[in-house]
Amino acid sequence: MADYNGQNARSVLQSPSVKHAFSLSIFEQNLYWVDWENRHVEWCHKFSGSNRTHKVFWHNAYPKALKVMHPALQWSDPNMTAIYDFCLQKCSNLCLLSPIRARNLKQPYVCKCAENFKKVGQYNCVPDCKPTEFTCTKTYKCLPFWWMCDGQDDCGDGGQDEMYFARDACPAYPCKTSGQMRCSDGKNCIDPAKICDGKSDCVDGSDEGLVLRHIVNCKTYQCYAGQFKCQNSSRCIESKLRCDGRHDCPNGEDEIGCLQTVCPPNFHKCAGSRPHCVPTTFICDQQPDCLDGSDEPKNGGGEAYQIFPCFSSSYPAKRQCLSSQFRCSFDGKCIPKEWTCDKEKDCADGSDENACQNQGCCG
After folding, report:
1. CA distance 42 to 107
2. For residue 84, which phi and psi values (nearest 5 degrees)?
3. How much of the chain exceeds pLDDT 70, in percent?
4. Which of 75, 93, 245, 302 could form a disulfide with 125 if both were Cys (CB 3.0 to 4.6 A apart)?
5. pTM
6. Where in or outside the cell (predicted)?
């Protein structure tokens, strides 16, 4: 920690248990941070580092932002108290102020529904979970069916999804990590992204609805986040395969309606008769990923060359990376800067992990 001008630098907390502090925030006397490796939200006294506490744990997410929300930070107006009280009595979920131009009406507020809820009438909200999700009746959370009986209270109500941890209510969880789907044989586990992908990853085919169709029915199954559903075959494919110039769905519906390929940020558009997108980190990595090889241009032509001029591996010093990338010392490969000092060697020579400061310090 330091003053705004960079002076008076000092360590607040130094401990081997602080693995990868990320996204700091300060409120009153406490310093808050997210630890990517421990997957905790933690806090301690902002000057002494004492009273270190952690309470929030993520199973599969790596949160990148942290914001403290507290009544002391919220705007208040004593004239709105009566409206606020009446609002709470009416709305079953969220109660928000109406736009300024509508506040002269009899109802200066509006009832809204949070994520995973749908509105019924003017004031009420009910859970709107997917057919393949489990609804927590007390906390109204929508959980993937494979989170049931995984040994963790995901509902946050004492364990409804774990049968409240009653003895022998749930079978033993065989998966090495949480968030995996247990095959119906009770022995094997698969990544949920493999559910209804057209291939039987479970020995008994339960991930493709070949058994226990009431649990996995690929016709009604809504694909995992980041996937596209092939309508005619009920198969789930990766979203990046949509409009990539190849038929990944059996009937080719993933290539229907692709008038123009528009690549998202940090992706490169491959040229040729079948345009598709590849991450910019694939450019100049000495391995062609585009069908036309435009991600490895060496002749000085084309859009990719103007942005990422690639040279032969004997001239790695001339390779240029974006300001948001790190250039590996050995072969000049460009990798995201976020991959540096993450305790994983992404460069062949490990140069992305050299000269890293002690990650066990927070301050």
Report:
1. 41
2. -65, -45
3. 74
4. 93
5. 0.44
6. Membrane
For residue 187, give the 3-state DSSP assignment. coil
Rounded distance between C-alpha atoms, residue 293 and residue 291, angstroms = 6
CA 34 to CA 48: how far, in whole Å?
Answer: 19
CATH number for region 267-353:
4.10.400.10
CB-based contacts of 157: which residues, under 8 Å, 6+ apart? Answer: 136, 138, 139
Which residues are registered as beta bridge partners of 7? none
Contacts of 340 (CB under 8 A, 6+ apart): 326, 352, 353, 356
Band the pLDDT of 343: cuts 50, 70, 90. confident
Q: Residue 100 half-sphere exposure, CB side, CA atoms within 13 Å?
A: 0
Cβ contact 311:296 at 8 Å: no
3-state secondary structure of 341: coil
Beta bridge partner(s), residue 127: 117
Predicted pLDDT of residue 29: 86
Residue 75: the pLDDT is: 57
Two tokens, residue 171: 């079978």
Residue spans per domain, the chain? 13-71, 267-353
